[in-house]
Design goal:
With 406 residues, this protein is α+β, with helices and mostly antiparallel strands. Among the domains are: 65 residues, MutS, DNA mismatch repair protein, domain I (3-Layer(aba) Sandwich); 53 residues, 5' to 3' exonuclease, C-terminal subdomain (DNA polymerase, domain 1, Orthogonal Bundle), CATH 1.10.150; 159 residues, DNA polymerase, Y-family, little finger domain (Dna Ligase, domain 1), CATH 3.30.1490. Helices cover 43% and strands 20% of the residues. The protein is built from 15 helices and twelve strands. The strands form three sheets. Strands 5-6-1-7-8 form a five-stranded mixed β-sheet. The C terminus is likely disordered. Bound molecules: magnesium ion. Magnesium ion binds next to strand 1.
């Protein structure tokens, strides 16, 4: 199956965080630099306005000031950069647990298994951009592709705050005209070697003789030749290993504010289904369920409950979240902009034990439900994620729930 990989790159990260810390800076050309008092200090980052004056990262302060006399210099605030990096990676983690940071302001996400929740991969990318912008004031460019190297090129292709899709149909048009040095792992010396061979663009590399490139650049030559041809099955390696994970969550931001209970139920069900599938995949059960709701004014509140026993069942998680929603939000008729379902207090399945009493019914029904959900997992494993979503089985589950609430 073709993978769906995103590369998310925060735009002018340090300078943007400075603008969030002090919005007045937005009106000026701004550069973050090591030591503003020392003229030989170096520019670490610049905002869009400074860029339009030709200010470049890594040049000295006096070089930058010559081009842009009104340049406002600010010292770096690394603690805030780490803080925002974590907030943004947590947003990514609400879309997939396969998130691999590459430096402080870039991450790859493998969303092959979760894109269906949001429609198309492009929609996921647009949604991520919107949520990052709304929650942090920062912007991110996203590349969507079937390999990590192409996704990275995509995030660089249009900036700031843009989505670029590079697929099997368009990669020759988009990627091949780019300079070969844009490709991941093509540094200065590899670039010089390739240019001596008359290879200036990624397309020229793709169509060059692979043995020739590898004779000069070794294994790395083979690798970049493959990358240029869209052959790169390097996995997105989660930086957040399953064993250290303290919670599993999934969120969705709705294009419109929701007040209708049945739509909210559908959202909660889809999110719980996903969270439960991830728990079962990691052979874990959870005993705390929380529901996070954001209203149209971006006020975010969470409510949680502890289950009488650990679970990995979608039905239990959905039921708990619906209870939380009805108890804390529904009565006040508050519109909902975003929902996140999170489970925590995770323990290994083996330790949790199997036949516990259910929240919903007696143990026998719970067993039945467990075997239904495990059967759905197996069908999905065999036939793909969409083979069985909220089919008739789960519709009847809904019915059961509605009865429970009466
Ligand atoms: Mg960046």
């Amino acid at each position: 199956m073709e993978r769906v990989i995103l590369h998310c790159d925060l735009n002018a990260f340090f300078a943007s965080v400075e603008e969030v810390r002090n919005p007045e800076l937005r009106a000026y050309p701004v550069a973050v630099c090591g030591n503003p008092k020392k003229r030989h200090g170096i520019i670490l980052a610049k905002n869009e306005k400074a860029k339009s004056f030709g200010v470049k990262t890594a040049e000295t302060i006096w070089q930058a000031q010559r081009k842009c006399p009104g340049l406002v210099l600010v010292p770096p605030h690394y603690k805030d950069y780490s803080k925002y990096s974590k907030i943004v990676n947590d947003i990514y983690l609400s879309y997939t647990d396969l998130v691999e940071p590459f430096g402080i302001d870039e991450s790859w996400l493998d969303i092959t298994g979760s894109a269906h929740l949001f429609g198309t991969p492009e929609k996921v990318a647009d949604d991520i951009r919107r949520v990052v912008r709304e929650e942090t004031g920062l912007t991110v460019s996203v590349g969507v592709s079937f390999t990590k190297s192409f996704a990275k090129l995509g995030s660089d292709y249009k900036k700031p705050d843009a989505t670029t899709v590079i697929n099997q149909q368009n990669f020759k048009d988009i990627v091949w005209p780019l300079p070969v040095s844009d490709l991941l792992f093509v540094g200065k010396s590899a670039k010089a070697t390739l240019e001596r061979l008359g290879i200036f663009t990624i397309g020229e590399l793709a169509n060059s003789s692979k043995p020739m490139v590898s004779s000069l650049l070794g294994k790395a030559g083979e690798l970049i030749h493959d990358y240029a041809n869209g052959k790169d099955d390097t996995p997105v390696t989660s930086a957040f290993a399953a064993s250290d994970r303290k919670s599993i969550g999934r969120g969705i931001t709705f294009p419109d504010d929701l007040t209708d209970l049945s739509q909210i139920k559908t959202g909660i069900t889809a999110l719980s289904e996903d969270v439960a599938a991830r728990l079962r995949k990691h052979k874990q059960k959870a005993s705390v369920v929380s529901l996070t709701v954001r209203d149209p004014a971006f006020r975010t509140t969470s409510r949680q409950m502890t289950l009488p026993f650990p679970t990995h069942l979608e039905s239990e998680i959905t039921k708990s979240c619906l209870d939380l929603y009805i108890k804390y939000y529904a009565e006040k008729g508050k519109p909902v902009r975003m929902l996140t379902v999170t489970v925590s207090s995770l323990i290994s399945e083996d330790l949790a034990g199997g036949d516990q009493l259910s929240l919903l019914d007696d143990g026998s029904d719970n067993e039945k439900r467990e075997s239904i959900e495990l059967a759905i997992d197996n069908i999905r494993k065999k036939f793909g994620r969409d083979a069985m979503t909220k089919g008739s089985l789960l519709k009847s589950e809904f019915h059961i729930r509605e009865k429970d609430e009466e």
